[in-house]
Design brief:
Elements: H1 5-8, H2 21-24, H3 29-35, E1 42-45, H4 52-63, E2 67-71, H5 77-90, E3 93-98, H6 105-117, E4 120-126, H7 130-133, H8 136-139, E5 143-146, H9 152-165, E6 172-173, H10 175-184, H11 189-202, E7 207-208, H12 210-216, H13 230-243, H14 247-259, H15 263-278, H16 285-299, H17 304-317, H18 323-337, H19 386-400
Helix pairs in contact: 5-6, 9-10, 9-11, 10-12, 13-14, 13-15, 14-17, 15-16, 16-17
Length: 402
């Protein structure tokens, strides 16, 4: 079976990588690791089609090291055993594992001892947030590198590369079609290559036009504008509409994200919104959003649209507060800018001077908790909403207790 265009065009070296300059550009971290012929286990994470596999294979190629590809879902325990035996035979091996967040305990148990000993160097790849989805035992042994979404210009650069590669003989594409393909691909270069290949074989003269593309793809252009910034603008407008309590605009931008099929960015953005913008004004929304996200991911699109619609309506019409964000940012700023004194002696462990609050009336007793240099500092200032009015009353009552 003939290889797909996306595989034929896979970069052989870091110089061939499209995008990800923050990692593979000159004097950037992965560039320097390869230049110094030093490699550590790592996890590459980011959206589909932005170069995770390409970077992993390019690293192995440039270092001239043996590597094997595994998939945490598709490959079974026996496949992992075979790779480990090969690593032992050759005294080392790069093991590239796709969907590493799906690695079950049996496969983890196989990898961990050899990851620890250095017999294998792991390059894991995932579309999930590794801080939440990757087993801590694996994560703690790896460097984490985030790949950024490809820009519209990056996608167009990839399309140009496909045209001049000669893999599809006689291929040409109009500027209008190229713009459209770059738009509907989002940041997914693999999608662009696959669509280009289908279009090539579906037209007689090998000249791809806008009409050719619109006949073979049902993706819409709703996320993007003529400047190529539309994807990010829609995400921004989605959060700002919820923050601004405009329920209709919130649903409009939700619909555009659903139409693009980007469930991952929707649920991640909702997780931010509920704590950044709703916050202490309506703390019950945190668990609600978490439940909605779990349900949406379990259902997938298109059914998830109903769950998402309901939670977005509630978020948009909920009271808002960013007091928690302001409070922690203020505390962090003090850590960075002030000369912070030591923890008070009576709070150190053990201490006979510490007053145990549960031994006192109402489970409260006044004593110093902040370091000496910060006595009297306030970080949290309640806002004027129903829930925080209650919190303010509690704070005031505690101040009045002798």
């Amino acid at each position: 079976m003939e290889e797909l265009l996306s595989i034929k065009l896979r970069p052989k070296s870091l110089n061939d990588i499209i995008g990800q300059e923050h990692l593979v550009g000159e004097n950037k971290i992965i560039y320097n690791l390869v230049k110094n012929k030093k490699l550590f286990s790592m996890i590459l994470y980011g959206h589909p089609g932005i170069g995770k596999t390409s970077i992993a294979i390019a690293i192995a190629n440039e270092l001239g090291l043996r590597y094997r590809n595994l998939n945490a879902v598709i490959n079974n325990k026996k496949d992992f055993d075979v790779v480990i035996e090969e690593a032992k035979l050759y005294g080392g091996l790069i093991v590239i594992v796709d969907e590493i967040h799906r690695l079950n305990k049996d496969k983890q148990d196989i990898l961990l001892p050899y990851l620890e000993s250095g017999i294998i160097t792991l390059i894991g790849m995932t579309t999930a947030n590794p801080y939440h989805a990757i087993n801590p035992a694996i994560r703690s042994r790896c460097q984490l590198f985030e790949l950024y979404d490809l820009t519209r210009d990056d996608i167009k650069k990839g399309i140009d590369k496909a045209v001049i590669s000669g893999y599809l003989e006689g291929l040409s594409i109009t500027d209008e079609a190229k713009d459209y393909l770059a738009n509907i691909s989002g940041s997914d270069l693999r999608f662009a290559y696959n669509t280009l290949e289908v279009a090539y074989y579906s037209c007689e003269d090998r000249n791809i036009t806008l009409d050719t593309l619109t006949k073979i793809t049902n993706r819409t252009n709703s996320l993007f504008d003529k400047n190529g910034d539309g994807y990010y603008n829609v995400i921004s407008a989605f959060q700002k509409s919820i923050r601004g309590s405009d329920v209709n605009a919130s649903l409009h931008y939700l619909a555009r994200l659903i139409d693009a099929g980007d469930l991952d960015i929707i649920v991640r953005r909702l997780s931010v919104i509920v704590y950044e913008d709703i916050g202490l004004a309506n703390p019950s929304m945190g668990p609600k959003v978490d439940a909605a996200i779990n349900c949406a991911l379990r259902l997938g699109l298109p059914e998830a649209r109903i769950v998402l619609s309901q939670i977005v309506i509630e978020l948009a019409l909920s009271p808002k507060s960013n007091s928690a964000e302001i409070a922690i940012d203020s505390a962090l700023n003090d850590i960075k800018t002030k000369n912070i004194s030591d923890v008070p002696n009576h709070l150190k462990n053990p201490s006979s001077e510490y007053k145990y609050p549960h031994n006192y009336k109402n489970d409260y007793v006044k004593q110093q908790y902040l370091p000496d240099s910060l006595i009297g500092t306030n970080y949290y200032y309640p806002k004027d909403n129903k829930n925080e009015k209650i919190l303010k009353e509690i704070m005031n009552k505690l101040k009045d207790i002798d």
